[in-house]
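A.,

Following up on our hallway conversation. Structure tokens first:
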């Protein structure tokens, strides 16, 4: 019975809210009931698991709301993986904000000195370059890369990776 399944999923989500319980609730809710269920499920996540709320907002395509949740409390850090997803989702509508996130991720990643960190940072720099172009901030981005290269000049592997990626 659909009603019983919906009640079960609603109870599961209230007891242990997560992206998984949200997805199960969504699957159990008949189409016309989903908007009300969605609002209630998001309220539960907002109260108990802000990271999961950001995840479901992104999955639902509510990028602006996800950004608002992630940036509304400067004391809360959604984590690097969520920041990367937020920046990617935000880039089409606010490339300057996305660029800022990508550059913060670069700084965080480069606290480690190994090839894996350098690959990750180079990828984030490429995304930041793309966002900078869309935001008409290419000159600022170039200045950032120049300062980054100078700051890390004693990391030849990083410099070589930047060169190979065309980040001069």
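Then the amino acids I'd put at each of the 168 positions:
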């Amino acid at each position: 019975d659909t009603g019983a399944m919906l009640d079960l999923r609603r109870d599961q989500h209230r007891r242990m809210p997560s992206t998984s319980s949200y997805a199960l609730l969504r699957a159990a809710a008949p189409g016309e009931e989903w908007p009300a269920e969605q609002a209630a499920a998001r309220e539960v996540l907002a109260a108990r698991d802000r990271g999961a709320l950001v995840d479901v907002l992104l999955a639902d395509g509510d990028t602006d709301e996800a950004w608002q949740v992630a940036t509304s409390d400067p004391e809360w850090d959604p984590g690097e993986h969520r920041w990367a997803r937020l920046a990617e989702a935000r880039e089409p509508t606010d490339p300057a904000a996305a660029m800022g996130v990508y550059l913060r991720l670069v700084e965080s990643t480069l606290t480690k000195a190994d090839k894996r960190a350098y690959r990750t940072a180079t990828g984030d720099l490429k995304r930041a370059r793309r966002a900078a172009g869309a935001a008409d901030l290419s000159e600022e981005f170039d200045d950032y890369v120049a300062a980054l290269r100078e700051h890390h000049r004693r990391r030849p592997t990083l410099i070589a990776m930047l060169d190979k990626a065309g980040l001069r």
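Residues 115-134 form the longest helix (20 residues). Curious whether your intuition agrees with the design.

B.
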